Amino acid sequence: MVWPVAATTGVDAAPADVVPGAPQRRQAAVTALLAIGLFAVALVARLLGISRTYELFLDEVTYAALTQSVSEGRGVLLHGELFFLHPPGWFVSTGLAFRGQLADERLDQVAMALRPVNAVLGSITVALTVLVLRRLTDRKAIPLLIGVALALDPFLVKFDSRFLLESQAMVLTTGAVLVLARAPRSSQGARRQGIAAGVLMAGAILTKEPYALITALPVAVMALVGAPPGRRVLVPAMVTTVAVYATYLGSLAARDELSLWWTAKTSGFSRLIGVSQETGFNAPGSPSLASRITELVEQFAGTYLLLAAGGVTLGVLVVRGWASARYWSRSTVLLGVRAAEPARVVAVAWAASSYTYVAYAVLLGTLEEQAFYMVVAPTALCLCVIATTRTSASRTSGPNPARAFAVLLTAMVVANGLSWVVLHQRTDDGYAQLRDFLDDEVPDGSRISVTEETAQFTLPDYDVGNWTSLAELRENQVQYVLVAEALVQRGYGSARPGFLADVERIGDPVFEREVPTLGRLVLLDVQGATR
User: Fold this and answer.
1) Do 347 and 464 fall into the same domain?
2) Is 359 part of any domain?
3) What span, in angstroms and rounded, lies between the C-alpha atoms of 218 and 215?
4) How many CA atoms lie within 13 A of 515 on its CB side?
5) DSSP 46-106
6) Last residue of some domain: 379, 406, 423?
7) What is the domain extent for residue 523?
8) What's the gap between Cα 214 and its chain centre?
9) 416 and 449 assigned to the same domain
């Protein structure tokens, strides 16, 4: 099948990797300097204040426990049981890299020690995105502005500054996009290109399986309709991805663990499609997405602007490609980009699959904050596609979209830079401050009631329980009660909102801090009322 071309679409400049001779070497040098420079900017933005700017998160200590288990040679275990909710890729790769170095450490300390790994991976993602951008255009300004915006993006920095799955999944996904974003030069080269992309896609899926929806799924659709870079690349990519994941399943079957995997995956799938709403913004009793957007608009203004602009530009490309289709199968017109430019096809396919996944999660599925992490980098590529694309009319008399997008990107850079400065002037490390106080003032083994899950992982040397009524406190002779007021108010804790007021009537605050994530974090001595 001949790939349909959107008749009204043109490109201002050829991709950098097709410029011959000495100019090609200069372009390559410029590209390398951009990527290295923006990697450095992104890394500094993520490493500065990494332990004090972002509060410890429950998922971090869970993943730290799994990584510690691998590091000690015990396998992927959580509380002594095999863990299959997520694939083992992140825990195995990090655990083996730090083999024998994480033993006997508290889980909060492990999570904090491993945060720089995510910072490095997130910074590599920024550099890889810049390399893809340079395959979309030989201009310098737009890749530079997009790269700086991503390097400072407060939403990306937040996730890349915590020990979470997303950083590894996204760096592998972006690597696959970079590999696919060029035309093969020979049949043998096409196979190698496809196999490399397939290994990277499989790595992303073995880190977090929903990433299959923005890697394997769009590549499968592109292979089906014959999209660039062509089936010679896309089919080997899909075969490799399936083969790697099948090898993983074979290893589970050989250890008689496939039934455990199936139970975990069916439960996870029901959550993914929204049949089971246990967590996230759509779960009963949880804060709504709208309320969180409103609450965080000052912090993430640049991110919101990027995602909104990306959604609009993606819609424009869809409509343009649909309207200009020459063949009956309009669905095979991949968003109005030219057949000669696989970088544009791959970039927009990535953006389309990412937005589709998030749109479903918003409307019907389990929607958690990390879903939006998937969209930021592909959105940036989508903006570059339309910023460097001009219709036949605009090439002669209309406005240049690149100038408008340069203004938009400059606004994003300014917003992200201001947000980064404001965020890094605050301290958001309530649990770390609590540990310092406990080490000095509260004897090991003291009985403490906690009202949310994260705190228990920071207190392994104390007798911790979830006692959240006055009767339970007295019955169990609790000595201290720890309450994170903001988490209780948002419904994330196990205590009812009035519990803190009840405890304050019978106890004395011995530790109190006001921090952004936890709100008022207070430890109360209740021994006088429970003994």
Assistant:
1) no
2) yes
3) 6
4) 23
5) HHTTTTTSS---HHHHHHHHHHHHHHTTS-SEETTEE--SS-SHHHHHHHHHTTTSSTT--
6) 423
7) 430-530
8) 12
9) no
Residues 159, 282, single domain; the answer is: yes
- Same structural domain, 393 and 450: no
Q: Number of folded domains in the chain?
A: 2
Q: Is the peptide bond before 87 cis (omega within 30 degrees of 0)?
A: no
Strand partners, 509: 524
3-class secondary-structure state, position 447: strand
Q: From CA 78, how far away is CA 84, in angstroms rounded?
A: 10
d(CA 398, CA 402): 12
Angle between helical axes of 166-180 and 187-205 (0-180°, round to 10): 170
Do 384 and 512 fall into the same domain? Answer: no
Whether residues 149 and 171 share a domain: the answer is: yes
What is the DSSP-derived secondary structure letter of residue 448? E
Q: Tokens for 358?
A: 């998030």
How far, CA to CA in Å, does 458 sit from each of 62, 95, 111, 430?
12, 20, 11, 11
One domain, residues 372 and 443: no
Structure tokens at 314: 């993606």
Could you tell me if 280 and 367 are in contact, meaning their C-beta atoms sit under 8 angstroms apart?
Answer: yes
Query: CB within 8 A of 514, min separation 6: which ones?
Result: 520, 521
Residues 6+ apart with CB under 8 A from 439: none
Four-CA torsion 32, 127, 52, 164, nearest 10 degrees: -150
Cβ 152 vs Cβ 45: under 8 Å: yes
Q: How far apart are CA 145 and CA 131, in angstroms?
A: 13
Task: At 530, list the tokens.
Answer: 């429970």
Q: Fill in the amino acid letter for 307.
A: L
Model confidence pLDDT, tens digit, residues 225-281 = 888 899 999 999 999 999 999 999 999 999 999 999 999 999 999 999 989 888 888
Q: How many whole angstroms separate alpha carbon 381 and alpha carbon 446?
A: 54
Q: Going by DSSP bridges, is the β-strand pair 389-390/10-11 parallel, antiparallel, or unpaired?
A: antiparallel
Lowest mean pLDDT among 4-8, 317-321, 426-430, 434-438: 4-8
Of 423, 458, 476, the residue that ends a domain is: 423
User: Which residue type occupies 64?
Assistant: A
Query: How far from chain centre, in Å, is Cα 146?
Result: 18
CA–CA distance, 69 with 144 (Å, rounded to integer): 41
Domain for residue 521, yes or no?
A: yes
Look at residue 4 and tell me if it is in a domain: no
* pLDDT tens figures, 123-142: 999 999 999 999 998 888 88
pLDDT tens string 61-118? 999 999 999 999 999 999 899 999 999 999 999 999 999 899 888 999 999 999 999 9
Question: Angle 245-249-252 (CA atoms, 0-180°, nearest 5)?
Answer: 145
Whether 477 and 351 share a structural domain:
no
Q: How many CB atoms lie within 10 A of CB 522?
A: 23
